[in-house]
Write a structure and sequence with these properties.
Helix content is about 40%, strand content about 10%. The protein is of the alpha/beta class and about 400 residues long. Strands 1-9-8-5-4-2-3 form a 7-stranded mixed β-sheet, with helices on both faces. It has a 3-stranded antiparallel β-sheet with strand order 7-6-10, with no helix packed on it. The structure holds pyridoxal-5'-phosphate. Pyridoxal-5'-phosphate (PLP) binds near residues 162 and 188.
Length: about 400
């Protein structure tokens, strides 16, 4: 390396950890001539079902978590205009999927320490039109599912879990996505298991999962594999007006091997989390709360809080300094209510959910990909120190 290019490369936030087995599987898939929904998707669904400890009839692959949430809510058959209570501390897709299902999003504020939806705020948001709760296991930390399920039972509400951060998450021995009527997973490039774009529906009632699966492919009674495979052509019927949300074998080819390493990668992210906890302990920053007893945190995001009064700088200045130091960061998230579309459509003001607003103004996500080396980690920690100096 010449002195001119001795500057270390930019450390990309949430770089996917892609390895040789998925590269070989993608090649094999391409050579097989079958790229669309077929045998590799079926295998990936079976592997996810096994990982969650449920039957394969309770799992359906789709092309995103957004699609998974959308068709789950359509399959649930809630009357248009029904209210769905969710968190303001989430990605816009959570709220958009509610809107696309002809339902009305209602926000309930988060707990300031866990950043997860606060069960008391859920109870306060219930109206005669409430039909569902859509909790997000933020950063991979499980929501208080005991209280959320008790509220759901008491008010006869459906529960759809947004598990985009939470494939490995468990709460008191139960796996995320298996509490409610539906659990929706994301395999987007930044998530813990990657297929590029991709998602998975996990359900409780095989009939509802089958309906969600049909809705995800035009409302057709048979997918292409079952029409064109070597078993001979089969006619299909359109039984509903569905969507184009199916997962491809090309995507599943990546997911099969990503899922095979899910636990190994989780262990590495736990190591990184613990290393950050130690390295950043004496800095003027808020660090994530420790995982709760009898839960399993997925360690998807490591979020620090930059409080200008304590840190001496604004959060956005911190982001700029990290960038200048060659470290990619993220913001998860500005409160959903900050976005103009929702403010205009629903008359929301972010001050209605003060905990989410405050977190959204201070939070910074540091890189926690399993791809990070120990020297990357040391670089990030040193950069945080100099950005605050
Ligand atoms: C990434 C994400 C989604 C959307 O997932 P896609 O697979 O990209 O549709 C939804 N909710 C949360 C909390 C996310 O982080």
């Amino acid at each position: 390396m010449s002195p001119i290019d001795s500057k270390p490369p930019f450390l990309v936030f949430a770089a996917p950890d892609i390895q040789e087995p998925e590269i070989a599987e993608v090649e094999a898939c391409l050579r097989s001539g079958w790229l669309g929904t077929g045998p590799r998707v079926a295998r990936f669904e079976a592997d996810v079902a096994a990982y969650k400890g449920i039957g394969p009839e309770l799992v359906a692959g789709v092309n995103s978590c957004t699609a998974a949430m959308h068709v789950s809510m359509v399959a649930a058959g809630m009357e248009p205009g029904s209210e769905v209570i969710t968190t303001p501390m989430t990605f816009c897709a959570t709220v958009n999927s509610i809107v696309h299902a002809d339902l009305v999003p209602v926000l309930a504020d988060v707990d300031p320490a866990t950043q997860n939806i606060d069960p008391d705020a859920i109870e306060a948001a219930i109206t005669p039109r409430t039909r569902a709760i859509l909790p997000v296991h933020f950063a991979g930390r499980p929501c208080d599912m005991e209280r959320i399920m008790a509220i759901a039972r008491k008010h006869d509400l459906m529960v759809i879990e947004d598990c985009a951060h939470a494939i490995e998450t468990e709460y008191r021995g139960t796996k995320a996505g298996t509490f409610g009527d539906f659990g929706c997973f994301s395999f987007y490039v930044t998530k813990n298991v990657v297929t590029g774009e991709g998602g998975m529906i996990v359900g409780r009632d095989p009939k509802l999962v089958a309906r969600a699966r049909t809705l995800a492919l035009h409302g057709m009674s048979k997918d292409a594999w079952h029409r064109f495979s070597d078993k001979g052509y089969k006619h299909y019927q359109v039984v509903e007006c569905g969507f184009k949300y199916n997962m491809m074998d090309l995507q599943a080819a990546i997911g099969l091997h990503q899922l095979a390493r899910v636990e190994q990668n989780w262990l590495r992210r736990r190591e990184i989390w613990q290393a950050y906890d130690e390295a950043l302990a004496d800095l003027p920053l808020g660090l994530p709360a420790a995982p709760e007893a009898d839960t399993r945190h997925a360690f998807h995001l490591y979020t620090v809080m930059v409080d200008p009064e304590r840190a001496g700088i604004e959060r956005d200045v911190f982001l700029d300094r990290m960038n200048a130091l060659g470290i990619g960061t993220g913001v998860h998230y500005q409160s959903v209510a900050e976005h103009p579309y929702y403010r205009e459509r629903f008359g929301w003001h972010p001050d209605q959910w003060p905990n989410a607003r405050k977190i959204g103004q201070r939070t910074v996500s540091l890189p926690i990909s399993s791809k990070l080396s120990d020297s990357d980690l040391a670089r990030v920690a040193a950069a945080v120190g100099s950005a605050l100096a």
